Request: fold
Amino acid sequence: MPHHIRIMGWVFISGLALMALELLGSRLLAPAFGNSIFVWGSLIGVVLSALCAGYLLGGTLADRYPSYVGVCSAISAAGILVMALPSLTYPICNAVINLNLGERYSPLLAATVLLAPPSVLLGMVPPYSIRVTAKSFKQLGKSSGTLYALSTLGSLVGTFLTVFILIPAFGVSRVILALGVTLLVSAFLGLNMRLKVLVLLILALAPLAAPNIANHTLALATNNTQSTGVVYEADTPYQHVLVTDMNDSAHSTFIRFLITDGVLQSAMDLKDPHAAVFAYTDYFHIGFLVNANIERVLFVGGGGFTGPKEFLRDYPSVRVDVVEIDPAIIKISQRYFRLDVSNPRLRIYVEDARLFLRGTDQKYDLIILDALSSGFIPFHLMTKEFFEELINHLGSNGTVISNLISPPYGAGAQLLRDEAKTLRSVFPNVYAFAVEGPESQGLQNIILLAALRSQFMTKGDFKEVAKNVSSLKTRTLGQDVANYFVPETEPATVLTDDFAPVETQISPLVMQPLGNYQDSDMILKETMRILAIAVLISVVIVIFRAKRVVQRRLHEGPSEKGVNSK
Reply:
């Protein structure tokens, strides 16, 4: 194959790998740091900085050592680092979390350590390639323009291929492994014999070098459960999904959990599927205390469909609509969480909630907001404009229930204060309930109830109504309303589409979605795996260097004797 064709292929593949790596990086970091603007800002900034360094370093080395071996060495080294990413992510993210840098700078450091080295190497390829292909200064402009166009075209292909085909079909770790192998194979022909042997050794060790990070079963935040294995695992276009069963020894049952991007979403008792595992879902029924004649309910966010299933079972006259953006979640709920989509009183819409509301004229008596993305409520579902849109779809006595995670008071309750103030700017009355009790100052589910009803209800009013309502099926209603409290009002900001910094208010780091990222045994195993591979590679390098020294001495020996005999 002509050298210029090879060079064009190398440049194209390096551009493809670079964009694919950036997109895959978001999935590697999401279980540890969420999917916030800080994560994406870190990824983009790190890759751009690495490209800058790669362009400079590649151009400098190309002037000193202009050769095809130099180009292929950079690609091969990048391939090795890419293949190691799934193994490296686990201990590196754990180490960064232990530094307590916060939700802003933790993903920046992790992205730098994981993605900067291979990105620098891939950034070296275009300037290095220009130097070895340009035969004269007259052809420099054409060569550089062609190669940078190919690099950009590769990035475009890498973007669409990774997002629309590879991640949904194969999962993150397999794609990363394939990406690293592609880089190594593509550069193989341009390497010298020693490097070729090294590449072949690495390819042979590839299955050990890149275990699937997502296969590490998450240790859930409970003392009474023990994992019995992963039931289902997949990457969807929106998130990494894990279904796992846990042995709840305290209650002699098994609990099935739905986990997305490392954050618990839903749970079902396999022995008693109708039992509520998470207490906060019982609070969805409190809307009946404000409006006893609820006939139509909208759930924003499906998860394991715990709430919709409860309403369909407990209230035969209620019709339920659910808006869920990820179609894979619906299929998973059907298969693993006993969701019956054939129920004539249930309608499911696969769409973003705001787009759905803009396209329908349906009115609801109760709207329940229970949508989470990587531990955060999507900001556009927390703003004044969104709540104004909800009012347009509520009946005259309609209510909105919003589930969020916050302490009830204190500095950590800024998100709660902002959301409560935003709701008050739209609804006449807003009430708050702390699922674990207002006296508990830790993170917990906080239920906000916003009502169009103008008459204000006190804590006593809720207790009195709860005593006299026989149609509600939740057994803990009296205790639920007893957790009524009044959130602090200041300092607080009304969240808008223009300004809603919800990612800065509560971090998945504080919520500890990582589970067994704190598992010292797992960290030790991963570290030993990486060290073993590094030792094998080092041994091969030492053998080659020793062989080279021996050959050099054998070659120099006769010449020295010849000089001495003269």
Notes: The chain is about 55% helix and 15% strand.
